[in-house]
Amino acid sequence: MYDVAIIGAGVTGYGSAMYAARLDLSVVVIGDLDGGTITLTDDVANYPSHPQLTGKELAEKLKEHALDYPVTIEIGKIVELFRAEENFFYVVSENKTFLAKSVIIATGMQERELEVPGHDEFKNKGVSYCALCDAPLFKEKIVAVIGGSDSAAKEALLLAKYCSKVYIIYRRKKIRPEPINSRRIEKEPKIEVITETNVTEVIGDQRVTSVRLDKKHNGSDTLAVDGIFVAIGGIPHSELAKKIGVKTNEKGEILIDRSSRTNVEGVFAAGDVVDTEFKQAITGVAEGVHAAYEAYKYVNETDFVFSCRDDDAFE
Question: Residue 240 — φ and ψ, nearest 5°?
């Protein structure tokens, strides 16, 4: 029986685990991707005290800090979460079942897919969702980044180190990266921004050869590219939370208050899965710290009743 089970093994989960353990709670962190999706980020330059490092390095530092305390880490996919009559939680992974008095949900989000003809056919054949993973495969090639967020800008800047030409295609009037990345985009001669335009089809033979646009660019509604990198936001991993009655908004993001509390007692949430607008590693970790403190108060203020059970029930 743990005082708190943290679902999600990313930077938010590890930051939360460190604080919870400092508060003398017994902690287990369970997630299917060690380090979370930030490990796919090449450049993190906005985390305080670390001017320059990769996402993988940041995740590893937070994990190492958490492990300075008696924190248990289990890598595996959570398949079920439910509450027992005795007021504690069952957290069921593919391999184990964990019991916890409280739960912190830090499950993040998955990339939103581009829903156009040709996407499925050419996924992993020129259609990618990770520049850090695939940029070297497009050395001296022409590629397009779909999206206009700071994440899209970072993808384009990384791709410019390898590719001969990088387009950013965005549906709105202006891309919206952080100012420092906006200036970097403007100074990078390999990058061209195409705004107020949507990709309507991915075209290719064995691999991607072009994309069709809903607005002509240089007199044509097709743009020759060797690959596309999709960065159009994400879908929150909130399915487990919904099963136990946690409220979400229309986007599926978990609703939390300023202290990372959900509407369900004993359940807290933090990071990209919640309804805060500004989603960064530092804000996710801060929310996770709030969640850890609220879990500490909840565990120490709640009376838990435990009944005798057959041990086989927990296998």
Answer: -60, -40
Range of the domain at 206: 119-230
pLDDT tens digits, residue range 153-210?
999 999 999 999 999 999 999 999 999 999 999 999 999 999 999 999 999 999 999 9
Please confirm, yes or no, whether 34 is among the known catalytic residues. no
- What global pTM score does this model have? 0.84
- Per-residue pLDDT band for 87 (boundaries 50, 70, 90) equals confident
How far is Cα 119 from Cα 196, in angstroms, rounded to an integer? 21
Max Cα-Cα span within the chain: 75
Residue of 24, 68, 133, 257 marked catalytic: 133
Task: Give the residue carrying structure tokens 């581009």.
Answer: 114
95 and 238 share a domain? Answer: yes
Domain boundary among 230, 255, 274: 230
Pair 130, 36 in one domain: no
Q: What is the pLDDT of residue 309?
A: 54
Residue 125 and residue 74 in one domain: no
In this prediction, residue 307 carries a pLDDT of 63
Q: Please confirm, yes or no, whether 163 is among the known catalytic residues.
A: no
What CA–CA distance (Å, rounded) separates 223 from 213?
Answer: 7
- Chain-centroid distance of CA 117 in Å reads 26
CA within 13 Å, CB half, 217: 20
Among candidate residues 230, 249, 282, the one where a domain is terminated: 230
Residues 92 and 165 in one domain: no
Grouping H, G, I as helix, E, B as strand and the rest as coil, residue 278 is: coil
Average pLDDT over residues 79-86: 88
Residue from 3, 134, 150, 272 carrying the catalytic annotation: 134
* pLDDT recorded at residue 314: 45
Identified catalytic residue from 32, 42, 43, 130: 130
H or E, element range at 235: strand 234-236
